[in-house]
Amino acid sequence: MTRINPNVLQARPYQAGKPTSELAREYGLNEASIIKLASNENPLGMSPRAKTNATLAIETSWLYPDPNGFDLKHTLAERCDVSPKNITLGNGSNDLLELVASISLAPGRSSVYSQYAFTVYAQATLRAGAQGIAVPARDYGHDLDAMAAAVRDDTSVVFISNPNNPTGTYLEPASIERFIKGVPSDVLIVLDEAYNEYLPDTLRYDSIAWVKTYPNLVVMRTFSKAYGLAGLRVGYAISSPEVCDFLNRVRPAFNVSNVAQAAAIGALEDTEFCETTFHMNLAGLAQLEAGFTALSIPYVKSYGNFILACFGEAAADVNQHLLKRGVIVRPVANYGLPQWLRISVGLPEQNAALLSHLNELQKKAQ
Q1: pTM of the entire structure?
Q2: In Å, what is the CA distance from 172 to each residue of 52, 141, 199, 240, 344?
Q3: Which of 237, 250, 288, 365 measures 20 to 30 Å from 278, CA to CA?
Q4: How sure is the predictor about 333, in pLDDT bands with cuts at 50, 70 and 90?
């Protein structure tokens, strides 16, 4: 056999949500009628301004994109009140997580992350040849005290997701900052805020300001969720200039396309679309919570754009029932949650259709 890196032999491909085209082929369904509630995408699509920018950028796609992302970095710098020297662009936040692993992890080193946290933390650690330390969750979320205790002399990075995917749990900012203060200053702390835009003002906190106080902190955000650019793949990290320099040493050239950069600028400027997205998601969460309560389906209180719901031993059957009716949700057995399904917030009529199918299934079981 070809000599493959032994760490790669242990790795498993990322399990993405089932594409609508695949489900249409499997069950002979009309793809246009399929409801996808599996990948935490924005059901409103991308903003009109982002779409206009992307369309214009296609005209110059025969040229390589700006490898340094000058315009997007300066737009982000103004929005986040940092210097462009604090910003690293990525092909989605997944790319940035891999870059962090590249600069901090190696054989003989370890990373710390929570049980039920984003699977890429473990996968990036494995690919770097390091040891991942999964700390048992508390109430399906991060136990920061236990995570602090799990940091060893060989630990070089800690991953924290807030809100957390796939469970939707939320950490109070005071507890996060207390954790940062307690971790050795030579350990990188990644604060993954992919779902930050879904938090109400009362729960928002200025994590980016912390970067100026704690140079070992890396704050990550993405345009894939609330901004509706999942297919264009663009994310960004805010860190100290020193960490940013290291990330850019290993960052692939041209990792963010010109179309993605242009669309991201448009998305940032389209504040009306962001506001609409926020309110639609808040109403959708309430709609699903009320529906699950009426159907006596346990769920974890979510602060993202999805809900983790428990169906017990029937979870796999429920998933199949929904697939046959053209509704895609996300099984999370690979996260150690075989009795649960993660369900993205859709449009009001999509949420209603999901609840109707679940109600139908319950009546059949009675």
Answers
A1: 0.93
A2: 37, 12, 12, 23, 23
A3: 237
A4: very high
